[in-house]
Design a protein that fits this description.
Elements: H1 7-31, H2 37-67, H3 73-83
Length: about 90
């Protein structure tokens, strides 16, 4: 199901898009490829794919951290009791 992207996704993917577009333009200039509509579309597509991938990676890492369990001090003492050790409250 579709869900709205996180704020970090929007920020990181926007930064990645502009940085990638700049580097791709620079690389194509060094290669001597003439400017034109085909080159502009190529830069747009490659920068968009890199941006989308970066946004996906950000959302994937946020999902993993959101699903992680937080160990509280009471949880640690309960683990010690279950393990047979002595826990000091």
């Amino acid at each position: 199901m579709f869900s709205m992207p996180s704020m970090w996704n929007l920020v990181i993917s926007t930064v990645v898009f502009f940085v990638a577009a700049w580097y791709i333009h620079r690389y194509l200039d060094e290669q001597g490829i003439p400017k034109g509509p085909t080159r502009g579309i190529l830069v747009l597509v490659i920068a968009s794919l890199l941006s989308w991938g970066a946004g996906y990676f950000v959302d994937m890492t946020q999902e993993k951290t959101a699903d992680a369990k937080v160990v509280t001090p009471t949880g640690v003492t309960q683990l010690m009791k279950d393990a047979g050790g002595q826990a000091n409250p």
